[in-house]
């Protein structure tokens, strides 16, 4: 377990940072003019972006991405104060999980390929295609009403100033994976490119029999499944990781009246990770683990291969002396996961004392593509009115065919074949009939998103004071379809006494056409017929907003406005053989909200800027959370039951922050925040016996915290000639967050009964622990960067630390006194990044080297019972990663 004493570390770093601020202010403060008239200069060091916005925000640019060596947005955004990342994909901002965040590209929302979330997984967005990112932590009416912790806008590269071509390649070595033995299976010939070539398609004869309502597949249908390339696991040496990319930019037209330019990026990566770990699902009884009679544990080794392919292109047109611009942006973000796992399993509830071998193979394709067209126009002859517009269409897909699970029991060959010669007797793994194993799953998801937006901005003057009026409208149409097919291999009607000697056969030899034809084995369509296997969902939002940004005097401004949203969210569930769902299977949430927001910005003295904001926002249930059917969480490997009785959450936000810019690019900030949430949506356990979890609206929650940021550059020339032209960069932020969920009220949880989902209304205190923290919240977050930079050569060496204290990832129940909650012991990540530009034969090169997870921290989630005993929920080793890269610009 990682046990970092965060309070001590935070205090020490905070004290060091504040002393540095004092020294910096003495050195960098501008001289006070000694003249008779008083001259007041304020805000000279405040960055333009921080001056232009009325909101509390954090900005990362391309230089920040490069210095930290982060290849995807998920890794980069974790460097921002108050932000941590769950599952390597989803941001948790100020203690609120991904449902409370929004992610946009150039202001346009993205579709999501995630089966359980509308949130976009940020690990699929490479930083290479971005010019920067803006993380806004206070709400303003221009943004979607679904806001809680942060609105993250990713900004793509602009029109280039000149023609260029950048070619890059990198390779990496993982100490627990690379060049060591791992598990693999054949799959299709095109898996190396992240695409299946059709091998894993669901056989058409099987689909026909499912749609016809047949539970027991015919021998012909059973024989149509692939039982070799998707099933047989082999042990082989794991290759090194590698990636290549190319970026091409050019000015197509460049004259006084018209500029047209394009930037195109294409990238490919192939990475492997072997995990040796444990998964334990032992039950709790009265808050104590029962590991003697109901143990459920899997010790496993698995190898994961992730292939990413990304394509990005943007074309910009500027005309009218720079008053008008139009930008077209298109991108394809694709990531595939190929996984093979084998392990020893104990499940005394179902199999008693039998020792089992479980094997699992999976191939998941995730893909997001979108096309955007946007324009910005300034009309000087019409009072400098500004008009901007955006329209976009995109689709996200997730396809997971042939997710295979096989179960075999440890036995002696002589137990299966009594006539075995004692000299030939040996230990084998024999076929094990099971209700939970020997399955084949096919799941798919398609998510489409159409978006349009129009904004107006009009600057006015009341006397000598500027007032900016803004208004706009937005429309979103988001729809999602999912389907699931589950099949199980089991002993057939002719295997009355078992399979006999056939049980000793290797699985791919056992699953032969001839054996299915004999009726010794059969395949059933095991998609849960008590619950639907197909969902259709949609969300349509019409929004208008207006705000006024008013300059009250030279040093005080107020931004006040509101957003009106009218939304209709529908989720329908049905069985695949039915043409359409019944009326009682359609969940509809129709809501209208007016959401006010106000922010005050004050420049009281020098380069000190103070902001305070108050707003009201909402968050809506995710599509799958409303679907009255059962599905599997692919990250935690737990079954989830949707709750069609969920309602929207409403959030009251209060924020304040003081920002001191003591030199250009150098600052210290201190902020506080508070949130009061009505009906927060939480994921909790439902019954001990089934292990199923579900979603409920808790009555209320409160969250508060504080953030501190500090960034400073130090000229090292004073320490001697060796340090001439060297700067040290020091970046530090710390966030404290606390939350408490109230149980004064009722909750509605779903209960399965006779093939339908009915509401079970109960007092919240009977299900939830009073005062528990929100899912995903860490009390302490620390980010630290210490770097050296040569101003002349551009060479940098940066050490980075990222720390988040323990966080709950699955809420515990009152029946178990909260001991059934699942906690993640977040690893302390320490990285080292080196970057050296150099020139060779007229070509600019950049050599990079990086060491990640220097401390060798493992991934660890656990449960703790009343006796203080810990059980690993999911735990595995993570290696240290050594990588090198080289890029050339022509």
UniProtKB/TrEMBL annotation:
Keywords: Cell outer membrane, Membrane, Receptor, Signal, TonB box. It holds the Pfam family Plug. Residues 390-784 form the TonB-dependent receptor-like beta-barrel domain. One of its GO terms (cellular component) is cell outer membrane. It is found in: Cell outer membrane. Residues 1-26 form the signal peptide. The keyword Isomerase does not apply. Residues 50-129 form the TonB-dependent receptor plug domain. Belongs to the TonB-dependent receptor family. The keyword Amino-acid biosynthesis does not apply. This is TonB-dependent receptor.
